[in-house]
Predict the 3D structure of the following.
Amino acid sequence: MKKRVRIKDIAEKAGVSVGTVDRVLHKRGDVAEDVVKKVLQVMDELGYERNLIASALAFNRQIRIATLLPDYRTDGYWMQPWEGIQMAAKSLKHYGITVEDTFFDLFNPDDFLAKAHAVLRKNPDGLLFPPLFKMEGMQVLDECQRAQIPVVQINTYIEHPHVLSYIGQDSFQSGVLAARLLNFALRDGEPALVLNLEKGVTNASHLMEKERGFRYYFANNRQKNIHVLSSNFEDFENMGHLRAFLSSFTNGTAQIGGIFVTNSRAYKVIECLEEEDLAKMFIVGFDLLEPNITHLHQNKINFLINQNPVEQGYLGVLSLFKQLFLKETPERLQFLPLDIVVAENAQYYLQRQKQIIQFH
């Protein structure tokens, strides 16, 4: 049986006190760099394996991670990152980690800011949130920087010096990918539409980046003369208004050949187009929501790009755990794969997502 290595053994071989080894292990207090290197070297030589649960008990306090998400009861997409967060919370509870959830109105930046202020008043050890509203998100990041609260972003990335890590898609590249997929079907001279079904699009940096990537692809691939149109439509909950809006792109001589819906609401477009228009239209959207999957199997949506939202939530909490508990800095940019989902492989991705949730 392998002999258990004690802190005392490390101290004796390194020629330092037990207290010094403890400070190196927990990254507390001032220890000279050469002493740190010596202690770590001895730990490797002796094969020391830190008992994380024992360390948590010795730490004698809980680590509180706050999450701030859109209310998933009003938008099905946000159920998935929340499920990932719950998986991580369950996995880490033995280490004294607690995860406290707060939800905000997806379409209300003032509500987001109010909920964020309420969360920060509780002084959590770390914060996970998607900065869907760029201006308000910057304000929250500034406050976290002043309070020295580590922050992990998911879904949407905005540049700020205090961001510990971002987990999610590369929004620009997802726009490039959508353009490449649409390009397979578009004929020379057919217009393509970038459609943002969102409120306050100019304050949503991830959607702007998707459009920029989409335009970049067609600007640099001129085998076909594809004119890119873009439109922001905020009243997408009103089916009559959306139907009338879309008719302006399906009637007349300059009909569009394809639509790139920049978020998870491609199904709303399908529900507002006539069958004869759908037969001529090529549509790319995002996310494995049930109505999107239904239309994918009916060949009304041609491609869905999966952003792995469950993993976003799960890895977001783990990244804060790594920083707060293990004292290890996670990678600043953790881009997840951009999965191309079609009717033939959709079941694989749905089953994989279900297995991940059940396994944890």
